Records
---
Amino acid sequence: MSEPRDWSTALPPRGPVRPARHVLPPGNDRRPRRAARILSWIAVVTSVAVLALAGTGYVLINKYDGRITRLSDVFGNRDNAPPAAKNNAQTYLIVGSDSRGDLKAGEGPQGRGKNFVTGQRSDTVILAHLYGGKSNKVQMVSFPRDSVVQIPAYTDPKTKKTSPAQRNRINQAFQIGGPALLVQTVQDLTGVRIDHYLQIDFNGFKSMVDKLGGVDVCLSKPARDRFSGINLSAGKHHINGDVALAFVRQRKGLAGGDIDRIKRQQQFLGSMIRKVFSAGVLANPLKLNGFLNVATSSLQADDGLEFKQLRDLALRMKSVGAGNVIFATIPITTSNGYDRRLGSVVLIDQEKAAALFGAIQRDEAPGTPKPKPTGAAAAGQPLTVSPGAIRVKVFNGSGVTGLGRKAAGELAAVGFQPVGTPETRGTGATATTVFYGPDKADSARTLVAAVPGSTMALDPSLGRVLQIVVGTSYTGAKQVKATKPAAAAPNATPTPKVITALDDPCAA
């Protein structure tokens, strides 16, 4: 038996630190993190789009399509699946599989270590939502492999072996039930219907990076870990496939464990996307062809993902810039929770996760401005505009002589600014209504609060001046005071920044 490598002398005493060769030492972690096998999926379909627009695109895409392995029975019975997304949006489940197939210990690049385990595991799970309608955004939500979820009962269609419903790590669903059980588990967890399934393996990830000519990554501090083989100094590096794999699979030595690893994976995916979008790849037929050859050969997809859908997906992805690929991680309460049966686990924040996936179900992209509430809903909001800043035109709609002038005087007395002389607008109105323009809902709330019994209504034709039509129910105006929006509590969780593939730490 060879002597264990002395990792304490693996680094040079000074000068630039060279990336370590990707070799796992004997006795490595029994659960090696073969992470991010799918980090170039978006890059794949984007590149295909370029060929789709070329004269020979149809022939080439058929060639690449034929290389993809098809998986049957991924979705099973759709009767209990969540409803289809709005606006014809599409959702993909992308899985990085630690596939070992029939390998024995010591065979292949994944066969190192005395604790080698045969079979396959989902090392990376990403829910990719392509927003519908006119949106060109893509949301990619990562799930830590140790996230605790409820796995439904499952019967293997081949062996007929039944696995009971269980509370376990999310990667356990893939291990015992393959793609079908993982799809069902994620759908139950998120309430989001999964339309298609994509899976890529360990070797495919490394080969795609190499075919791109490597990618750039940046580190704020050195990354050294004997289990993953990573050995990089702080700063900018151009890395190949072997080092890239070590970069995205490192977990030990990261304060946040899987969560920090996901952040690193997202950084790397952003770098790959920017590389594929660059002219250096898109305008180089040889590089593009080599990249697509290894990418499609490593890809597995559900058998319902037809050529036409792949082509349409590729054409759509061509219009998606790096700034529209949005990264997120399922909200968690802790990344180092402990379960007596499972050991160290990641615990999901159910309330925040429901909000995240609820927005996806409604096809609401992050960063999309939400319309301000109107009508009764708006009237119940806090007052943020003081009466002295509000100009209002008064109309008498009641038919009662002098009620308009009375209302104008009373509004002025409590601080509002009546404009001009009150006018008549019809007769016999009972209710008092405040009309406001598109950007004056905040002012209208203050006026409604000052006139008991009144309601508010949007009039898109109005500008900065509000209008109030006084009805017979008008009983007077009262003093109101605007309050400043409540300050966030000291320990409140800030609104998370939207992270996209355009964010390049190497550009800082």
Note: The first strand starts at residue 69 and ends at 71.
---
Amino acid sequence: MALLGALAAAGSDDRLVSGEDWPCFLGPRQDGISRETGILKKWPAAGPPKLWSRRVGNAYSAPVTARGRLIVFHRVKDSETLDCLDAKTGKPLWSYAYPTQYEDRYGYNNGPRSSPAIDGNRVYAYGAEGTLTCLDFETGRLVWQRPANQEFRVPQGFFGAGTAPLVEGGIVLLNLGGPDGAGVVAFDKLTGKTAWKMSSDGASYSTPVTRTINGKRLAIFFTQAGLLVLEVTTGAEVYRFPFRSRMYESVNAASPVVVDDTVFLSATYGVGAVALRMEPGGLKTLWQNRTAMQNHWATSIYWQGFLFGMDGRHESGSNLRCIEFKTGTVKWAADQGLGRASFIMADGHLIALGERGDLALIEVNVDRYIEKARARVLDYPCWSPPILSHGLLYVRSENVLTCLDLRPS
């Protein structure tokens, strides 16, 4: 979705100077950054004003928005459910559900892990059991559905299927992790038919990004095995770089961060981080370091030559830090009790949701950690990143979804 130079709301409640939709995981540019300005920076003790809150089914899936509607993907009893809500009021508009039997092996909840994606008049969702669904955005009517993991004989991952669908051009891209060349599969977005498949890389919990580099449109994956870069139209392999833990019970989860022709990858389980330049003749390693940054599931955010990210596998000892993008040099690290927070960037600030439910507003500063505001807004666990759309911030725990108003009063 392009940036909208329109007011945030219709009628008399139009207080934001700029706004945009958030139609897919990590936002409209797949980088975790909102271009909205004028957000509320001084909060009451209880936090930003709450517009609405509602109980939802189990999930770790962040919602998405477009054209005044919010799409929520969650599990209600024995069904994976997509609900369309009015973004300002939380009022239900339509609902679609299909049965699931997914059970998590490690005792986590059995709901979807990945965010849906809105593309024009269609919604795409990939459930924990590996079912790929396409719905009509206006009505919730089923357009097509494929039990993708079952069809491609994908083994169940440690925490189910967790990559978000990425719509690019006429296809939907997924790191399925299937054998016999079905590691990555592209589906025709209109019909659901297989457009191409490539590699036998196992599935990760990282969502791919697309960029144009050296004149080619590329899909950049952080699979279970490491970096895998494919041509979007054909699936032809362009680059590969092994990058994963030696531990069997480990995952790659943060999305790649791509700046110009350089890709940054990071993972925990003793992996660390690497920056690779994608040159016409191959990959060039700019730096690799096990201690500079270890992203667990929250994707780092790039800003003016620096990366801001969460370092640490466990809640205890996790810290927000700033590192130099070109060298991996750590500028600062701060353990402020947020645990493994997820965050986005907007209007010169990080908006971070700690896993215990603390919402923090942190100034984007490369010299030191500067926190402007904090409030407890949800209960543990909060493992989904917040999203910002037209001045409204949506945050969720496992079972509660809340809309907070960041428009200036």
Note: The chain has one domain: 33-405.
---
Amino acid sequence: MKLGLARAILRKADILLMDEPTNHLDVLNVQWVVDYLTGDECTNVTSLIVSHDTKFLDNVATHIIHFADLKLKNYLGNMSKFVEIFPEAKAYFDLSATTMKFKFPTPGPLMGVRNKGKAILEIENVWFKYPGCEKYQIKDVTAKVSMSSRIAIVGANGAGKSTMIKVLTGENPPTKGKMKKHPNCRFAYVAQHAFHHIEQHLDKTPNEYVQWRYQGGQDKEALVKSTTKISPEEEKLMAKPIEVLVEREDKNGEVKKIKEKRIIEKLMARRKAGKKNEYEAQFKGRPQSDNIWYDIDLLVERGWKKKIDELDRRLAAAAGNARTLSAANIQKHFEDVGLEAELSTHNRIRSLSGGQKVKVVLGACTWSQPHLIILDEPTNYLDRDSLGALSNAIKDFEGGVCLITHNKEFADSCTRETWVIANNQLTRNADAEWEKYAQEALEIAAQEEALDAFGNKVEKKRTVESVKGREKKKMMKDLRKRIKNDMEMTQFEEDCASAWGLFAA
């Protein structure tokens, strides 16, 4: 975007035609564009700007040309003046004023996740740099995402926001540190350059694209990522024989245990074993009765990480295939994200506008009923009504949401937590009120009586991590009740004081 703006400026044109010039730009760069358009260099330049950025238009526009019902009407003044004259455009300043509605599909249950506050994606002390680079793009980052998360990720252009998201979702394996993901977690990822999702399918209709993408039960887009390709080093590790202890009967009829070397051919199934998963391995040239269950850590050491991820994706996709992949169902699904039936079923993707293409990507990514939706700069190309509808859909969604955005108004309308990426590190700022209540909830039961191994009573100090499940819900419910009572009591005291003041007067 900066390069496009620089080329336009160097043309020394009499007229600047700018289509969404603030897309992808952070706050400082948007301000630079405002300063340029309103500065001395543009005194004799006419700028025709298409934009959905209300604040930007308020700062630069001298006239508003409103396009509605196939007609153009010119209004003198900036956006604020336009809304005064044309109150129906209130949604330009208030996202909640939109009449449009979006709806995301309800995610299915996750094994072992009994409350929405439990982490389903997690990175711990993660460092990452791209191959061949000396400098780390992110340093010592720890973060968790749950189905109750509403997270806005902010930072300057190039700070590493998209890189961190790719590490969090497993697309970029961490250089150092740990990354954990619930094996059945399904997530929808709308990339910063959203159109790359559909650039190979422009001659399909949106409906045909979704049918192609999910035919066979898996998301085909996930299968073509570089992170799914087995490297020569991994192939070498996977082909290395593994020692197996087996029982054999000798000539005398005695059963003895001997060691055999076998090569794992493929992974067949997964099961839970304590806190970790085990995977059933089938060996080359051996019947299935000889299959053995192995711990995930051992298989990862032997190069089977990508095959484990592939099996996890298949099982997660199977768990999410609750809907029939029919044209009627897909059409209804696209209507839920604001794309009309005529456009989704009868128009080729190539003919759609930028905003309509974003809705195609949003609908396609969420078809699998994800537990987590990740949106990288979703406000690009969407009009104000669509932004308001997207904000409301995020608030109502039953799963978690992470969004990277430079649009503070949009972020404030639908998120409760902010991750700031700066100097290659992450700083977390949660909703102040929610943090206060959570801390008070822990202080209510700060001490807990327990018995040691000898039956003696000991006091165990409680931490945030130790309070879970139903107990946490009960504590929060009691806390809200206590806070409400305190507020009502405070109001009563204020009323008494006011009455006493009148009486004294």
Note: DSSP finds 17 helices and 20 strands in the chain.
